[in-house]
Amino acid sequence: MTSASDQSPILEIKNLKVHFPVISGIWRRTKGYVRAVDDLSFDLMEGETLGLVGESGCGKTTAGRAILRAVEPTSGEMWFRMPDGSRVSTTSAGSEELRLLRQDIQLIFQDPFASLNPRMTVFDVVADPLRVNHIARGKELEDLVSEMLLKVGLSPEYMRRYPHAFSGGQRQRVGIARALVMNPRLLIADEPVSALDVSVQAQILNLMQDLQEELNLTYLFISHDLSVVQYIAHRVMVMYVGKVVEIAPTEKLFGQPLHPYTQALLSSVPVPNPEVSALKQTLEGEVANPADPPTGCYFHPRCPFVQEICRTTEPPLNEVTPEHFASCHFAGELDLPGVPA
Amino acid sequence: MEGNWPILDVQNLKTYFSLDEGVVRAVDDVSFDVERGTVLGVVGESGCGKSVLARSIMRIVRPPGESIEGQIIYNRSPNDGPADATPERIDLRELTLDSSEMRDIRGGEIAMIFQEPMVSFSPVHTVGAQIIEAIVLHQSVTKEEARDQAIEMLRRVGIAEPERNVDEYTFNLSGGMRQRCMIAMALSCNPTLLIADEPTTALDVTTQAQIMQLMAELQQEFGMAMMLITHNLGVVAQMAKEVIVMYLGKVVERADVRTLFSDPKHPYTQELLKSIPRLSRTGQTERLAAISGNVPPPFVRPTGCSFHPRCPKFMSGVCDVVEPTLATVGTRHTVSCLLYSDVSGAAPKELS
Fold this sequence. Notes:
A: 10 helices; 30% helix; B: alpha/beta; 8-stranded mixed β-sheet
C-alpha cells in the first residue's frame, strides 16, 4: 500500500462548486442559488489527516459528500488515485466506476444513534458492504466481520446484538468498523466525535490514530471543534461561507494564523483553565447567508481589520509562506496572536 | 452580597424513574448549595443526571420520574431590608405543583434556559408574544408595558432591531438569535436564580463565545445566581465560581473552580481533565489519556463506588463493596471517593 507516492496526492480537488437552487413560488422558479461550496481546491496526501473546520453552514459537510458524489457537484474536477496508481476522475465516473471508488472512499458519520439501522444487528451492519459487493459469504464473511470488530475494540461475541444495546462510543466503533471493512484508503469522517461524551471522545480519537498508522489511512476530518482538530490533523483547512479562507500545517495555523477569521475561531474556544481569562473580544454578527453573500471578502462585515478594498474585491487564496495559504488582502501584515498563550 | 444564606440549598435529593425495566436513579442523594449572586457549574457526561437535577429543582420532571426524597430549599430574601436579613425558607418539593406559589417562583424568581431553543419556543407564536406572556404572568403590568419591557430586554441581549424582531417567529431566527431570545425571556422577570441547561451546546464556537460573554455580563448586572449545567470544561472554567462534578446521579466532587482544575481529587475528575484535547500554540503531541470503558447503562449501576469499573485507582475489595460518601478534603472542597475516607481499613472487616 505504501507506494513511494508521498509526492502525488491521493485526492485532488480543483474548483469544486456545489450550488443548490432556491426554488419558490407555484411555478417552481429558481430564485437563486445557495453556494454551499464555492470554488474549493485542495490536495489530500496519502496517509495524512486533513482537518476541515468551520461554523455550521460553511459547507464542510457538503464538501465531504461531494467527494463521494453523494451530492452532485455543480462544477469542478476531482481525481482519485487508485491503488494501481491510475488517476480516476470522480466527477465523470460512471456508476460502475463509482461503485469501485466508493469501496476506497468511505464515510464515518456524526451521530452513531442515527446512522445505524436499528433493525440490523451489528453483524449485518458491518457485513452489508461485503455482501453487496460480493466479497465474502458464510464463514469467511463472519471471520472478516469479527476480525474487523476486534480491530476497533469491540468483542465479536456481541455481534448478533442490535445497536440499541450499545453505548454511543461503542456505536461509533461499529460505524468505523463498517467503514473499514471494505479496506478503504480514504475516510471522510464528518464530526465523528461530536456526539460523544468527553470521556469516550478520547478513546475514538486514539482509535482513529492507531488505525491510520496500522492501515495507512488518509482522513478528511470534518469538525467544528478546533481542539479536536489540532490534536488529530496534520494540516487544517478553514472554510467560511463555502470558501477556503486558510489552509496550513497544523502548528502554523494555530501558532501563526494569517486570516482574521481563523484568529476569531481560535479566540472563541473556551479555555479549560480558570487562570486564563479568554472571555475577551468576541466576533460580532453572524455567518453570512450563502444564498446572498456579501460583496468582496465574505468575511468583511465581521472583520475587525476591514478596509475599503475588502468591501469590493474578493481576495484570492495565496501561498503567503511555504505551504501556508490564506485568502486575505492583508495576510501576513496583520498582527494575529494565534492560540492565546 | 455573600450572606450566610445560600439562595438554593438542595439536601439529599433523589429523583427516580420507575420503569418496567427497573428503577433509574437519575438523581441519587444529591446535596449542594448555590451561593447568592454566584455561578455554580454542574459538570458531567450525558446520563449523569444533570438535566434531571435542574428539572427537579424547577419541579418539571415528567412522570414516571419523581423526586421521592430530599429538600430543595429556596431562600427568598425579603424585598426590602438588609441583604443579610433572615430569608423566607421555602421547600420547593413541598409545594403543590400547580399552586400559585410554585408558579410564581418557577419562571419568575427561578428561571431556566434550555439547550435547544428551537424546541423550547413555540413555533406558532411570535417571540414577543411568548416573552410578553411570561412578563404578564409574573408582574402586574399591562400588555403594552410588557411589550415595551420585552423589546427592551431583546435589545439588552443584543438582538438587532428589537422593535421588528419582537414580532418574528423563531424559525426565522438563527440559532444564536434564538438563544438570545431564550435568555431575554428567562431574564425578563428579573430572576434571583437562573438555571442554564447546556445553554451554548447547540451553538457554533463564535456564537458560543458571544452568548457566554452576554450571560457573564447579565449575571453581574442583575446580580443573580446561576446554575450552569454543561459538559464543556472550557465553559465551566471561564464562567463558574464553584463546580460540582456528577457521575451516574451522584455528586462525586465539589470545589471552587481554581481548585478543581489545579488540584482535582476524584479520579473521575482527574481523568476527565486529562482526556480533553486542549488548544496550544505548538500542538499536542502527547497521546490523549482516554478513560477506559463506557458510562454504564442506567439500570445496571455498579456496586460500591459507581465509577470503580473505569477507575485507574480501583482498590479491589473496597471500591466495589463500599459506597463512598462525601468527605471534606479542603475549604468547601468535598469528594466522594474511598481514597480519601477511612473506610479502606474497615472494608475488609465488612467483607469477612
